[in-house]
Amino acid sequence: MAQLMQPKWKMAARVIPIIAAIALLKLLVNYYHLEFLALSSLFTALISANTFLIGFNISGVLADFKAGEKLPGELAANIEAIADECVYIYKSKKTDASRAGFAYCADFTSKSLQWLYRTIRTKAIMKQIEGFTDIFLALETVSQSSFIGRMKHEQSQIRKNVLRIHAIREIRFSEAAYAIAEIISFMVVLGMIFLKLDPFYENMFFTVFVAFIFVYMLLLIRDLDDPFAYYDKKHSVEEISLLSLEDLHLRLKNRLKEFD
After folding, report:
1. What is the DSSP string of 3-37?
2. Staple 86 to which of 102, 158, 179, 193, CB 3.0 to 4.6 Å?
3. Domain boundaries, the chain
């Protein structure tokens, strides 16, 4: 069901069952007259404090999300720069080493996509980056030193971008900040369930509304904290586009014909 709807509604679809359970619990509490809390300024202050904490968390994860948005594009540009050098050398020297170098770039692009989908490990992609050194050694005798220097620079940038992506998807923003926001959200929603406020329909509306906002935002923060969760299609909503790498993979496969 979640796969058939627009991505912007997938998070809401995940929240609705939780909110339905909260609404049902609120009805049961009201039915058995278990509401014992009165609305006070302290209660509203807790809601305001939790709103601040959620804002703090989302500002933290958004910084990593914005930084990660350009990394796939930069990685694609680095790979294509090396591939272009190989094409230039092949057209001027017609060497097998340049063709092998271009084919390695195409294969590395495929491996990068597999790594982002977590079908291969980070140490495997780092090994692939090291493999560029052997390509450069083979090209050294048939190309200018400035070409090799440029390609080694791109290799360094590839390694840097891979490590940055690895850090963003493996290191969480702040588990302690998540914990306090989740605890306060739970206590506020629990308090809303046992809050005595007449008329009941207003009580129910504010309980559901507050619970929806807090649960939605907590799930959104968790989702934004790993913008490279392509492997988790069921739960992940906000992902950084891999279109630049996917397009590059197709272009390199098509350009292999230039070496025939």
Report:
1. TTS-HHHHHHHHHHHHHHHHHHHHHHHHHTT---E
2. 102
3. 11-67+175-224, 69-171+242-259
